[in-house]
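Subgroup meeting minutes
Present: P.N., E.W., G.H.
Scribe: E.W.

1. P.N. recapped why we're keeping a running log of single-chain structure predictions: easier to compare across weeks, and new members can see raw inputs and outputs side by side.
2. G.H. added today's entry (643 aa).
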Amino acid sequence: MGPIPLQRDIVQRPGIVVAGQGDDPWPVARTSLPGIPQASAAARRFVRAALADWTGLGLPTTGEFGERLTDDALTVASELVTNAVVHAGTTVELLLRLEDSAGPEPAALVLEITDHHPARSVRDDRPERPDPAEYGRGLQLVATLAESWGITYRTGLKTVWARLPGDDRYGLPDTPVPDGAAQGRGPRPRRIVTPEGGPVLRDDAGWAGRGGLSFLAEASGLLAGQLDEDLVAATAGRLLVPRIADWCAIWLESEGGGPAAAPRLAGVWHRDEARTALLRPALEKEPLRLPGSVGTGPVPIPWPSGATAEPTEGADGTGAALAHRIISGGRTLGAVLVGREGADHIPDEAAALLADFVRRVGLAVGAARAYTRQATISRILQRGLLPSKVAEIPGVSSALVYEPGDDGVVGGDFYDLFPCPGGRWCFVLGDVQGSGPEAAVVTGLARPWLRLLSREGFRVGEVLDRLNRLLLDDAMEAAEAAALMVAAAGGQQIQGGEQNQDGTQSRFLSLLYGELVPLPDGRVRCTVASAGHPLPLLLRPDGSVRPAAEPQVLLGIVEDVAYGSQSFDLTPGDSLLCVTDGVTERRSGRLMFDDGDGLARVLSGCAGLPAAGIAGRIKQAVHTFAERPPDDDLALLVLQVDG
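Output recorded in log:
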């Protein structure tokens, strides 16, 4: 697919005065982009062209904008357009607006990205993103670069805006380059905003002072905020090009691949985006792997073909290239290669800054890999703790929604639906307090115990009685102690739970447990008990909703307790909703989703929907209750008697 045609319309905002310019209005540029992956690249081209237009017009406000703001504007536009395309999937409107520097505030550039699906939240919860160019690097990058940002909802529209100040946060004031001034001497050079591939002037001497320290401080925050090694590489590439280099490439060693495995080219970035596709094949031919004998210092590399954007008069189309090993914890994780066109070497100040930057990249890649390993182990463990499939009950439709928290730690929510002797089907929805190894121990024991007790013919209340005693006996305490020792050996901190006098952690379990018995006349006999768990709600076909159980104490707290149960008949069309507290306690500021019987109100509006429709409606309501995605496990089960 070729470049996306853009309609650039620079309009005037009447009634707004630019200081020192009489009644001249502020400039605005806007365009419309289709909701396809290529929209982010088109957005970058549009922003660059708009800033070049304004600079060419000699607008006074743009005199405060230099290389830093241009790069930040391109990054923010790319991230927000990518987010809108991925999560809204509609046409995207992009607007740029200059704000004057009248008063104490500096001049600023405001970007507004609008989509046509306001029900879709702005998301930053993508643990598995194989291609940063397609999925973006998240809102943390936008929040770091922008002075302020926010979301505005209007009828049928959602706008994410970001305000970028015009002052130079790196301590390098942007001043014009006098005729004949040598780079690094006299007033510091400024990069004029030009179309892609234009010349870039840099002040390498400035990196030795406060500018370099500010750049490294901000880079550390951006890199540390990424939890995926490819996102670390993408962020590093965007930070290096064109601030430090004209192009760069990053290779990453395959974790566990052994010394014979070739490093993977994680990304290539060129200040002229059209050259990236030409540079990548040249770099892919021979993966870069630096020997350990070179240490952490820079290694000169021959200039690769395809790296030069456009040979200039008097230049031979080559330049200087340096490589650094990416190291973390004494292990080589990859390599960074950077290049500058038309130079015989990279100045010492820039090379020293690059070495410090690569060390931070190594720490970020190491942390991202540790997180990925933990998240992978958690997902495998989570799958092992949950049933591979749930039973199908004759005459009853069921729908299940289960979304574990996205913190990479094993959650405490679990569920089950299984047959038992005597024509019974048992269902379970549980929530172990906390998360991590201790919660996994309780979940891994509670679910098999429930199946065993249920199949032995114990009644619903008796099953809870026996499970409560099992949670309190010495076997569980020994299992918890073993989990604590395993966690301590791995250097992990166990959170949650109350500490007993002997140093062990108490683990409490909220549980909703019940059984269904289909009757010959089409009704279903339901017996249910709740132990410290959100009560199940019964939805009748007329839209009426009522709790279907009585509250009782959590399991694992009191030894001498007798759990009771409630029995009732479900008639055709009746639906039973069971949820965990990830639904009822979903927060938006100080409010919770179930405040004022919020869950019951939403469920009442689901009358007439099938089980899957009810589950989907509740899930959507929980997600849209707050702007941020849920941070707790979410589980809900709908059981509906067929009509």
